Amino acid sequence: MWQRGHTAIYTNFDTYPIWYLVLSVILVLIIQDTLYYWLHRWMHLPRFYRWIHRAHHMSLQTSAFTSFSFHPFESLLQAIVLPVLVLWLPLHIGVILAILLFMTIASTINHGGVEIYSAKWAHNSSAKWLIGAAHHDDHHKKFNYNYGLYFTFWDTWMNTETPDFKERFEKLTTKHKSV
Ligand SMILES: [Zn+2]
Ligand SMILES: [Zn+2]
């Protein structure tokens, strides 16, 4: 579809201003995070959980391998976002590759079982919105909290963040194996 000109993918840096390059990355991450939050809530409804999302939750103790452990249908639902986005949202090919790399690294960090972010970040006005291993580990252990993908916006707004998460996160040091 790209080669036939049916997508909005572009390869020349001059096609759009450089600020759009940065904006497009932020836009994709926010769109992806929003779609995933609601898809994730939907997949936790009992009837869908059993046949789609249960496979991922079989990892009670997460590891880097958990980031690749999904039911094929869930993989499809997660992967389809980018190909659909490029049909109408102009994205530089380099941005697409950078996002794919970011997706992989973020998923590995969040399932790594070891918190790599500083405990001070819990109250930093920007860093507190980032999801790390401790945040997603809570999801695997407690099921009904922390549904977000990259950011904590939706969990905060929808009141689905583990109630004592920030307090416990603050007590973490880099030596702890998540909470
Ligand atoms: Zn889940
Ligand atoms: Zn997970």
From TrEMBL:
Enzyme class: oxidoreductase
This protein's record includes keyword Transmembrane helix: yes
Every Fatty acid hydroxylase domain range: 25-160
Keyword Transferase: no
Any one GO MF annotation of this record: oxidoreductase activity
Subcellular location: Membrane
A Pfam family this chain is assigned to: FA_hydroxylase
Transmembrane portions of the chain: 18-39, 76-102
InterPro entries linked: Fatty_acid_hydroxylase, Sterol_Desaturase_Related
The organism's place on the tree of life at top rank: Bacteria
EC number(s) per entry: 1.-.-.-
Predominant localisation class: membrane
Keywords, in A-Z order: Membrane, Oxidoreductase, Transmembrane, Transmembrane helix
Protein name: Sterol desaturase family protein
Organism of this sequence: Namhaeicola litoreus
